[in-house]
């Protein structure tokens, strides 16, 4: 996706924020050519939100799970209770598919969010490395002084209230990205499924923050906590009456409308992770595993 990793995300965020906030930057000028009257105000808003955003780096397997879980997420919502932080910038290592922007499929590698007068403003980004690869095939190059490692693509404002929304009601262009984001948020609230691991930010970046009188920059790595395997169809044991099984098998992960909150009176989609069923000690039908790795 890029030649930078989670340890450099604070510097990437700061550079992006400066370019978006600077009225004279080439990046801002190119984004302003959209012709919308509110473009400047939107960019100012995104820049301010990025300045206070919590930073997350989603490991490849967690990103893949978010994409897969998004396909069946039953409902979505955008309240403070549903988000891991009020403002955030989340990078999906490996990306989460493409966004159809002006009839051109653009890869999406990161998403930021923050409160907005219309509710919640969500912005989408592509890694500069992807654009560099595409242009290199045509013999062209990107001016890296004007184009940040994360390039804004588009954004979407969302209504924020306590009512759950059917994913089918989301705009067609944005549905895949937004449901993946909602799935990632839901998974991040489930410590049985994921781990949040502090990332050691590069020493030079920490030193620069110290000289500027800023607190130590923080980045959270979000990765799967357990191994995931595909589900199989368990065979019945013909020698036993009723539904007795002679093998153990994996139940594919799925969403459940889970009770939570005061007296368990509230409900929200909760991901039920893949798990093993069948008699203890029996042979497993599948042995292939997927292990979490970090860059």
Any overview of this molecule?
- The protein is of the alpha+beta class and 295 residues long.
- The chain folds into two domains: 6-222, no CATH class; 227-295, no CATH class.
- Helices cover 26% and strands 25% of the residues.
- It is built from seven helices and 13 strands.
- The protein has helices at 9-21, 26-32, 39-51, 60-70, 128-136, 175-188, 203-211; strands at residues 54-58, 88-92, 98-101, 104-107, 110-116, 119-127, 150-158, 194-198, 219-224, 249-251, 254-260, 266-272, 275-277.
- The strands form four sheets. The chain has a seven-stranded mixed β-sheet with strand order 7-6-5-2-1-9-8, with helices on both faces. It has a two-stranded antiparallel ribbon with strand order 3-4.
- The longest helix is centred in the middle third of the chain and has 14 residues, at 175-188.
- The termini are close together.
Spatial extent as radius of gyration: 22 Å
User: What characterizes the major β-sheet?
Assistant: 7 strands, mixed
Strand fraction equals 25-35%
Helix content: 25-40%
Summarize the helix and strand pattern as letters.
HHHEHEEEEEHEHEHEEEEE
Q: What is the helix tally? A: 7
Structural domain tally: 2
Order of adjacent strands in the largest pleated sheet: 7-6-5-2-1-9-8
| Overall geometry | globular
Task: Kindly state the number of beta strands.
Answer: 13
- Could you say which structural class the secondary elements and strand pairing correspond to? alpha+beta
Mean pLDDT score: 80
Q: Give the termini separation.
A: 12 Å
Low-confidence stretches: 227-251, 282-295
């Amino acid at each position: 996706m890029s030649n930078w990793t989670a340890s450099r995300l604070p510097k990437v965020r700061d550079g992006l924020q400066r370019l978006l906030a600077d009225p004279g930057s080439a990046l801002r000028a190119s984004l302003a050519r959209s012709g919308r009257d509110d473009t400047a105000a939107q960019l100012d808003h995104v820049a301010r939100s990025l300045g206070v955003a919590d930073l997350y780096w989603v490991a490849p397997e967690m990103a893949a799970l978010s994409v897969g879980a998004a396909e069946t997420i039953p409902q979505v919502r955008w309240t403070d209770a549903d988000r891991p932080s009020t403002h955030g910038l989340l990078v999906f290592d490996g990306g989460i598919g493409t966004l159809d922007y002006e009839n051109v499929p653009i890869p999406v590698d990161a998403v930021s969010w923050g409160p907005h007068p219309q509710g919640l403003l969500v912005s989408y980004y592509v890694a500069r490395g992807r654009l560099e690869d595409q242009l290199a095939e045509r013999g062209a190059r990107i001016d890296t002084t004007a184009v940040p490692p994360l390039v804004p693509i588009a954004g979407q404002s969302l209504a924020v209230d306590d009512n759950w929304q059917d994913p089918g009601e989301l705009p067609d262009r944005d549905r895949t990205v937004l449901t993946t984001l909602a799935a990632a948020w839901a998974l991040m609230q489930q410590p049985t499924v994921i781990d949040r691991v502090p990332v050691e930010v590069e020493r030079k970046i920490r030193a620069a923050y110290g000289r500027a009188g800023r607190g130590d920059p923080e980045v959270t790595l979000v990765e799967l906590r357990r191994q995931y395997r595909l589900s199989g169809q368990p065979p019945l044991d013909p020698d036993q009456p009723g539904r007795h099984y002679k093998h153990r098998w994996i139940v594919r992960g799925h969403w459940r409308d889970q009770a939570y909150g005061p007296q368990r009176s509230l409900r929200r989609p909760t991901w039920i992770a893949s798990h093993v069923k069948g008699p203890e000690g029996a042979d497993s039908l599948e042995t292939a595993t997927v292990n979490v790795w970090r860059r």
